[in-house]
Amino acid sequence: MSMKLISSFLTVAILAAQADRKPNIVFILADDLGYGELGCYGQKKIRTPNIDQLASQGIKFTHHYTGAPVCAPARCVLLTGLHLGHAEIRNNGDSKNGRKFPGQWPITSGAITIAEALKEGGYVSGGFGKWGLGPTDSSGSPIKQGFDRFYGYNCQRNAHSFFPPFLDDDEGEEIINKQPIPGHLRRPKEEIKANDYRDETYAPDRILEEALEFLDKNKDTPFFLYLPFVEPHVAMHPPQEWIDRYPKEWDQKKGPYRGQNGYLPHPRPRAGYAAMISDLDEHVGTILQRLKKHGLVENTIVVFTSDNGTTHPSRDPKFHVGGVDAPFFNSTAGLRGWKGSVNEGGIRVPAIVRWPGKIEAGSTTSAPSYFPDWFPTLCKAARVKIPKELDGSDLTPALTKKSFERSKPMIWEFHGYGGQLAVIDFPWKVVRQKAKSKKPGKWQLYNIRKDPAEGNDLAKQNPEIVNRLEAAFEQDRTPNNRAKLPLYD
Q: What's the whole-model pTM score?
């Protein structure tokens, strides 16, 4: 047999093996990144070249929604595939177990996560970043929830500092800073220097190192790489090199942030916030380059999204919480509301998916979708069994530009900020929030296709739509054992 023929047989064998191999999955979750804070979503001031390139190579969602408007419940919805009317965690909250950083309420041992489902299909799973679904000594530990490796912040409170005393390492801890920087401090009068809030190890960089090591180690087997990165959540103390790339003029009139709205002060808060997002973008680029180095681009699904909308206002109208100046960056792209709200600005988030050969490069979809959808979608792509109890819809048709219809309306039962409800049966959306009297407000109705800023309440003109969506909510939720819903129970 000639060498040419042997080579031809080998090529065919390699291609057949690659075609049969299950796709790797990289799921990148930003923290508090607003709908309008990426260049590919219209941002004009903040540089995000790597994420923008990812969008140019895949599909961009224009109507994708998080599972909740704050951190822990959003992650619960994402990883368990159950919307807020069924999720075990429906608000942020500490579990009391005597530790300095206790962790959030743990999901139970009966919860089934994406990682557990993928493990049944032969996947190895690693999580790197912010977990927020239970301490290491509880049923909510990532290692007890299907992950083979975890490194990062188990507790959201520890994640308020990017120079924390330790990071969680599987079910142990690694001390990374001998003189850690607390995430909260005020300086009403003194000079503010960014370097005063830095120590030896910048946690996002250390987390990235561990994620890359996991990728290198598991490049030859199907893997699920979950990357809940912590930026741009405040406190704000990004690398100086990124701060220096943004105009000093931005902050000359605005002045420094002194910690009056929580978290750490910063001498150049506008540049500081942009730097956090650009640093996040650089980390995304590093992951994408490592996939390319190992020849994994063609057989890897990459998803990028955010856990909720951008940081909300607080006491001092000069700055939002932590010194963020969201109006300056048009962080919500004109949408109403912020983090903590079920209005569009709080729950509509950027979402990008790249899967070469399956998804058309540079495409866009307006398919209404949200976090519960990722569980069945990723299981379908991985060719593993999809649990029957999930609330989401398989997004494969939307990803491949085919006809897509939801099986049922999208639901939010959020127990924070006085209690808030929302139901979307696109293009209709109903919202119910606490009124000024602290009593339940009336249902509001919006056509979010025509009115994305939710400025025109159509409830009085369309009571039948309000009644239909309220009925959909009542029929598709269960009471929560930890807390009653202020607006309903």
A: 0.94
